[in-house]
Every structure is written in C-alpha cells, then in structure tokens.
Amino acid sequence: MEKRIANPSTTREILEENGIQLKKSLGQNFLVDRNIIDKIIVSADLTSYDHVIEIGPGIGSLTQRLAEGAKAVWAIELDERFIKILEENLSNYNNVNFIQADALEYDFEQLLTKLSGESIKVVANLPYYITTPIIMRLLEEKLPFERVVVMVQKEVAERIVATPEDGKKYGSLSLAVRYYSQPEITGTVPRTVFMPQPKVDSAIVKMEIRDKPPVEVKDEELLFKVIQAAFQQRRKTIRNSLSKAANLDLKRDLVDQALDKVDIESRRRGEKLDLERFTALSNSIFDLLS
C-alpha cells in the first residue's frame, strides 16, 4: 500500500525536505486527516469511470485518494513549486495528470474536448481566496460536469445552501448556485485537521449539476441583474432597490407594474424572495421592456 500523504508527519516531512515556505496569499492549508478526505470521496461518489478535475492539489493529500478511485485525475496547481513535489509523491499513479495553471484563467474547454463523452466531476479543497470566483466560473460557464464537490469556509458553505429563512446568510450566491445545481452540505470540517491551521472551520459542499434550471427564465442575464440589484442594499425594499439600480436603469412606474403583475408587495425586501419569485419578477420586467 502506498504511503499516505494526508497525515501531519508526512506533510511536515515533505514541506521540510523541499524547503517550502507556504504562501498565505495562495490559501495554502493542507489536509492532514484521512477521515475528512474519505468524507470528500464519499460525497463525490467516485467510480472507476470518472474523470476528476482537482483544483489546488498542493502536495497531493486529496489527489492520492482521487487517483485510487477514479479513472483519471487532472490536477490544476498554480504554484509551480508543487508540480515537482506532486510528480514525486504520486509517481506510482499513472492516471494522474498535472497542469500548472491558474484555475480562474485556465481554458477548461481545451481539457473537456479531450474528455468528450466521459463522466467528469470536480473535487477540490479550494483555496479560500478563490472560493466564490471559481465556484461561479464552474457553474456559469455551463461546463459538462456531473457533480462539483468542494471544501470551503464554513461561512461560505452556509451561504451557498441558504434560503430566505436563513436571514443574512441568504444572498445572490445562494440563488446563483441553486439555479445551476442542487447544493448540500455533506459534512463540517474543524480547522484542526489542516496544516497550517486556518482561523476558521470548513465544510464540504456537494453540488449536483442540473440538466436545466428549475425555473423558466425569459432572460437569464436580466434575472441575475435583478438579483444583484436586490442584494446590493439588503435593507431597501425591492421597489427602491430595482428603481435605483444602476445596472438596470428602470423607471419606478415600470418597477411598480412589474411587481403588481406578479403580486409582490413593493415594500418587501429582496432577501425575502426565493428563486421562483425572482424569476417571476424578472420575466415580468422582461415582458414590460419588450
């Protein structure tokens, strides 16, 4: 059996042997608990037919387990210092491919063309500083992923799965993720299982990618502009938020008509509307603008 990378002594040994000083700016915190990695693997529901894209593999703690369960792993690492370490640590796995690139800029289409017709999942312990941008990129570009499983800050995880009943946790991120996927927190992760230890706890989030959105939208861009406007100033009424939003440029009379058409009280706040109500409202605005 291969030596486990995900434990404190091995992680410390690898870092010291390679003279690695971790960069806080890149959110480099490595998992050192195999039980947490197993929870991630279970959430991903890996099969021997799956291709897995991993973002931020670091020294390979999670990559090792992914390689043992998947058909192939495509690990995208920004820090070139770790490419050599990954190649050494995982030299006995012939199904792992390393890509030195920034996942926020990487051309996923180039890789996905090679994998056309295959089952593709994203599984990652995401660096905290790119959590929201990378999740939104993976979803908005409508790439052919079956499932996305990521470990993120617990606070971000709670925002991802939030509903209007969850108060301040609920926002544009919650709505966008729910539009593209079915999100679920599958486990919480204490800060103590990382090296070095971050200041916050984490959580594992599973996003099952939808074949199509759960709502019928007439103009997707308009829907997200309406959502963005509603949450820019949370305490404002939906009427004021939309009529004063620079990204919409709507006259107050039109906003009133749109709200009235779908029976939304003008004094309600956007944070009280779910995806279905936002969709009805944006469709109403679309009809009035057409």
Automatic annotation (TrEMBL):
The answer to whether UniProt assigns keyword Cytoplasm to this entry is yes
Q: Which reaction does it catalyse?
A: adenosine(1518)/adenosine(1519) in 16S rRNA + 4 S-adenosyl-L-methionine = N(6)-dimethyladenosine(1518)/N(6)-dimethyladenosine(1519) in 16S rRNA + 4 S-adenosyl-L-homocysteine + 4 H(+)
- Offer an example of a GO molecular function term for this protein: 16S rRNA (adenine(1518)-N(6)/adenine(1519)-N(6))-dimethyltransferase activity
Q: What does this protein do?
A: Specifically dimethylates two adjacent adenosines (A1518 and A1519) in the loop of a conserved hairpin near the 3'-end of 16S rRNA in the 30S particle. May play a critical role in biogenesis of 30S subunits.
Task: Give the principal location in a single coarse category.
Answer: cytoplasm
- EC supergroup of this enzyme: transferase
What's the domain of life for this entry?
Bacteria
Organism, as annotated: Acetohalobium arabaticum (strain ATCC 49924 / DSM 5501 / Z-7288)
Binding, S-adenosyl-L-methionine: N29, L31, G56, E77, D102, N125
Q: Which InterPro entries match?
A: KsgA/Erm (IPR001737), rRNA_Ade_diMease-like_C (IPR023165), rRNA_Ade_Mease_Trfase_CS (IPR020596), rRNA_Ade_methylase_Trfase_N (IPR020598), rRNA_adenine_dimethylase (IPR011530), SAM-dependent_MTases_sf (IPR029063)
Kindly provide the name given to this protein in its UniProt entry: Ribosomal RNA small subunit methyltransferase A
Record GO cellular component, one term: cytosol
User: CDD domains per the record?
Assistant: AdoMet_MTases (cd02440)
Record keywords = Cytoplasm, Methyltransferase, RNA-binding, rRNA processing, S-adenosyl-L-methionine, Transferase
- Ribosomal RNA adenine methylase transferase N-terminal domain span: 36-211
